[in-house]
Amino acid sequence: MDVFFAVLQAATLALILALLYRPLGDYMARIYTSTKDWRVERGLYRLIGVDPRSEQSWPAYLRGVLAFSVIGVFFVYLLQRAQAVLPYSLGLPAVPEGLSFNTAASFVTNTNWQSYSPEVTLGYTVQLAGLAVQNFVSAAVGIAVAITLVRGFARRGSGTIGNFWVDLFRGSFRLLLPLSVVGAIILIVGGVVQNFNGFTEITTLAGNSQTLPGGPVASQEVIKELGTNGGGFFNVNSSHPFENPTAWTSLFECVLMLAIPFALPRTFGRMVGSNKQGYAILAVMTTLYVVSLVALSSLEAAGNGTAPEVAGGAMEGKEQRFGIFATTLFGSTSTLTSTGAVNSMHDSYTALGGMMPMLNMMLGEVAPGGVGSGLYGMLVLAVIAVFIAGLLVGRTPEYLGKKIGPREIKLASLYILVTPTLVLAGTALSFAIPGVREDVEATSIWNPGIHGMSEVLYAFTSASNNNGSAFAGLTANTPWFNTALGVAMLLGRFVPIVLVLALAGSLAAQDKVPATAGTLPTHRPQFVGLLVGVTVIVTALTYFPVLTLGPLAEGLN
Amino acid sequence: MSSTRTAARTHWVAIRAMLIFTAVLGVAYTLVITGIGQLVLPAQANASVVHDADGEVVGSALIGQPFTDADGEPLPEWFQPRPSAAGDGYDGGASSGSNWGPENADLIAAIEERKAAIAEFNGVDEADVPADAVTASSSGLDPHISPEYALLQAARVAEARGLDEREVRDLVETSTQARDLGYLGEPTVNVLQLNLALAEL
User: Considering CB atoms only, which of B47, B66, B111 is closest to A310?
Assistant: First the structure.
């Protein structure tokens, strides 16, 4: 019966996403291809001093992305440092330098890794003027970059790939803001709080005193999920009853996380002029998503491991209203996108169950991935896949009429090397540098033995892939982790973006080659299978050794 | 234009854009949503508080609370919630799970200890104690327990209050909330609301 309910729950999610696929995907295609600016937008462009009709080459577009992100880091950093004098700060002091850097890097890179506990660190002003704003704009940046890559495939002989400022404003104001307003109201209906009440002391029924937190939570919760950000208003994120009060809000939050990433293949198909190409990408994402969800759900329901078996079920770190299956749906969704919100404590999952969120992130977050980043990650893998297919049959590979030459392959190969390098180097250095190792083992690691290694591996996997979830027993508010994870988040976000924009520029400049009898069709099941295979093999070969040292060793012991 | 000037200009554009976003997405958007919440859905927007028979606020329907004496010992006349890792237990200012891993000796010991304590407290067999009763939730503020754990406590509560056990069990049955839409999540019993109803028997 439980399994039947679990399938019904997943089917409900699939149905809602299927209904959204065409209208939302088409709407996004219109947003990013329309040549009409709203009057209010024209006013804003004048205010910031850009000409919305001017197009940018890829280096100019990149300069916009980087400048905007640098300014974002400064803004969030300074807001935290100035917290003591800001209004609505709940009497909290300035955030220390190292933690401020980590948090600023985290929210600008769409990661939302949280080395801090929000209740005792951040007041309302930093939360909304700093973090909520980045929740919107970091998502809009991700989608903008993905759209440039799509334009690269769609255009021919073009020296430009769009206008960053126009893409940024439209993504924020035409897409994310209206959806957030609707979503926030739905969340309040479900019981998510939205106030400026601060902490309230009450006397409980049994006569104890209890603190109830307040805050503008719903407005932040919705964009946290919709923009695949994931930074919780409260320490325990979406397992907090004020962030996620019921099983149906949990499902709704999964819809929010998946809506844009799963609809972007439609946008892609529309913009390259073949909806079938979008369906192929969608099929790859869906296949990986379903397999991963079934794996995690089965592992947690089986409840292997000493503690779950003694307890009679893997309920440590899970909420009763969610049970196993609303937990695993959320956990899978959050780590297969780049969200990193949690409605359970991943650290307390069964050993092999806890490996699944890590594997999800290690896939490169492409199933369906973060808003924008999922699509561009998957398209880079598609470039690799057609290259491999081209090698097999001995033809010059092409994708959507664009030749995949040495330059394209170099960019794509570098792309898939970035995050594994950061993950493996960061994890290794944590145990290799004298002084750091002792600090990691004595201060940061919470669970002893193999599981402690997994906590560190999870942290670097999460930061480098811009996910933000954690094996949260890890104390990450230390100089080493604040710095190393901060750097991993920045490199894990912006190095791939540089490569994607360069790829977009290179593709846009090309003419289209006509399809011939020898062209590999990229909208058929054969290509879907190939792309799934490439995604899995690239991941598995890279990470298998380190997984055997962590969750596999723990789970198979 | 020199590259330095181009960079300076781009950053100046970025600063102005960030100020606009802060005003619209940070401030105006939050205030609009707060306004809608406070005007249209004030109960939910303000923590879904619940009152006792005298009209006093006794907590939030969404946030679990302890039913313990001054020493932290469970009070037999109240239904007990799950173990909590938030502060000293159900601290709304310090939400937290235990984050103990599945092979952590501390967790295994804690579960065994809780199981024995709950079995003794309720006069039942250890094998009958359900998983939610011996595990800490993710938030540390879980307001719910499973119907099994609630029923297990019924006899003890009835005895402590001098009530008929049948009556208390019936109360648990009527307080049990089904899955959302009939299939989402798990059936639950809200401990605070059950105890409020109990106080009125």
Answer: B111
Chain A 496-555, residues with CB within 8 Å of chain B CB atoms: 554
Within this chain, do residues B62 and B26 fall inside the same structural domain, yes or no? no
Question: Which residues does residue B176 pair with via DSSP β-bridges, in sequence order?
Answer: B189
A chain contacts of residue B105, beta-carbon cutoff 8 Å:
448
Residue A282 to residues A24, A261, A269, A553: CA-CA distances in angstroms?
A: 14, 10, 10, 34
What's the full length of chain B, in residues?
Answer: 201
Residues B13 and B105 in one domain: no
- A499 versus B7: the higher-pLDDT residue is A499
Among B5, B50, B62, B149, the strongest candidate for a mutation testing the A interface, having the largest count of A CBs within 10 A, is: B62
Which of chain A's residues have a Cβ under 8 Å away from the Cβ of B179? 5, 247
> Do B58 and B14 belong to one domain?
no
The burial of A219, by beta-carbon neighbours within 10 Å (0-12 exposed, 13-18 middle, 19 or more buried), is given as buried
Three-state helix/strand/coil letters over A6-67: HHHHHHHHHHHHHHHHHHHHHHHHHHHHCCCCCHHHHHHHHHHCCCCCCCECHHHHHHHHHH
For residue B85, the model assigns a pLDDT of 97
What is the number of domains present in chain B?
2
B27 by Cβ neighbours in 10 Å (0-12 / 13-18 / 19+) ranks as middle
Whether residue A227 contacts residue A139, with contact meaning beta carbons closer than 8 Å, is answered with: yes
Domain that residue B178 falls in = 49-199
Do both B32 and B59 map to the same domain?
Answer: no
Contact predicate A203/B58, CB 8 Å: yes
pLDDT at A214: 96
Q: What is the pTM of this model?
A: 0.97
Look at residue B1 and tell me whether its pLDDT is greater than 60.
no
B200 Cα to chain A: minimum distance (Å): 12
CB A313 within 8 A of CB A303: yes
Residues B104, B90 share a domain: yes
Q: Do A208 and B75 touch (CB under 8 A)?
A: no
For residues B107-136, give the mean pLDDT: 98
Look at residue B121 in the predicted model and tell me its pLDDT. 98
Cβ proximity of A523 and A276 under 8 Å: yes
Task: Report the distance separating Cα A353 and Cα A324, nearest Å.
Answer: 12
Residues in CB range of A328: below 8 A, 6 or more apart = A293, A296, A297, A300, A301, A353
Do residues B82 and B111 share a domain?
yes
For B27-45, write each residue's pLDDT tens digit.
999 999 999 999 999 999 9
Concatenated DSSP letters of A474-489: S---SHHHHHHHHHHH
Going by C-alpha positions, the residue among A128, A238, A120, A255 that lies closest to residue A182 is A255
Please say whether the beta carbons of B83 and B66 come within 8 A.
no
Could you state, in chain order, the average pLDDT of each consecutive group of 10 residues for chain A (557 residues)? 93 98 98 96 97 97 98 97 94 96 97 94 95 98 98 97 98 98 98 96 95 96 97 96 98 98 98 97 98 98 97 98 98 97 98 97 96 98 95 89 96 97 98 96 95 97 97 96 98 98 98 88 95 92 93 92
How far separated are the first and last CA of chain A, in Å rounded? 31
Looking at this protein, which amino acid is placed at residue A311? A
In sequence order, the 6+-apart residues with CB closer than 8 A to the CB of A333 are A254, A257, A258, A293, A339
Q: Give residue A396's pLDDT.
A: 84
SS3 for A85? helix
Helix/strand/coil for B54: coil
Residues B132 and B84 in one domain: yes
**Lookup result for tokens 């300035």:** A94
Residues B109 and B84 in one domain: yes
Report which residue type is found at A37: D
Judge whether residue B12 has pLDDT over 90: yes
Structure tokens at A147: 């759209």
Instruction: Please indicate whether, in this complex, the C-beta atoms of A194 and B33 are within 8 angstroms of each other.
Output: yes
- The answer to whether ipTM exceeds 0.90 is yes
